[in-house]
Amino acid sequence: MAIEINGTATPATPRPGQCLRTFLREQGNFGVKKGCDGGDCGACTVHVDGTPVHSCIYPAVRAEGKAVTTIEGLAQGGALHPVQEQFLAEQGFQCGFCTAGMMMTAATFDDEQKANLPRSLKGNLCRCTGYRSIADAVCGTHDKHNHDGGVAGGAARPASAAGTAADGNTAAGTTASRAGQLGDNVPAPAGLAVVTGTARYTLDVPSGELEGLLHLKLLRSPHAHARIVSIDRTAALRVPGVVAVFTHEDAPAQHFSTAQHEFYTDDPDDTRVLDDVVRFIGQRVAAVVAESVGAAEAGARALQVEYELLDTVFSPQDAMLPGAPALHGDKDPVKARISRPRQNVVAELHSELGSVADGFAAADFIHEHTYRTQRVQHVALETHSSIAWLDAEDRLVVRTSSQVPFLVRRTLGRVFDLPEDRIRVVAGRVGGGFGGKQEVLTEDLVALAALTLRRPVQLEFTRTEQFNATTTRHPFTIKLKAGASKDGLLTALQLDVVTNTGAYGNHAPGVMFHGCGESLAVYKCANKKVDAHAVYTNTVPAGAFRGYGLSQTIFAIESAIDELAVGIGMDPLEFRLKNMVREGDDMLSTTPEPEEDVHYGSYGLDQCVSLVRDALSRGKQRYRDAGLDDLGPGWVTGEGSALSMIDTVPPRGHFAHTRVSLLPDGTFAADVGTAEFGNGTTTVHAQLAATALSTRADRVAVRQSDTDLVEHDTGAFGSAGTVVAGKATLLAATGLASRIVTVAAALTGVPETECVLDDGGVDCARRRVPLADIHDAARHQGVQLAVEGNWDGTPRSVAFNVHGFRVAVNTGTGELRILQSVQAADAGVVVNPRQCRGQIEGGIAQALGAALYEEVRVDDAGRVTTDILRQYHIASFADVPRSEVYFASTKDQVGPLGAKSMSESPFNPVAPALANAIRNATGVRFAELPIGRDKIYLGLKEGGPVLSR
Question: Which DSSP string do the residues of 771-791 spell out, in sequence order?
Answer without folding.
Answer: HHHHHHHHHHHT---EEEEEE
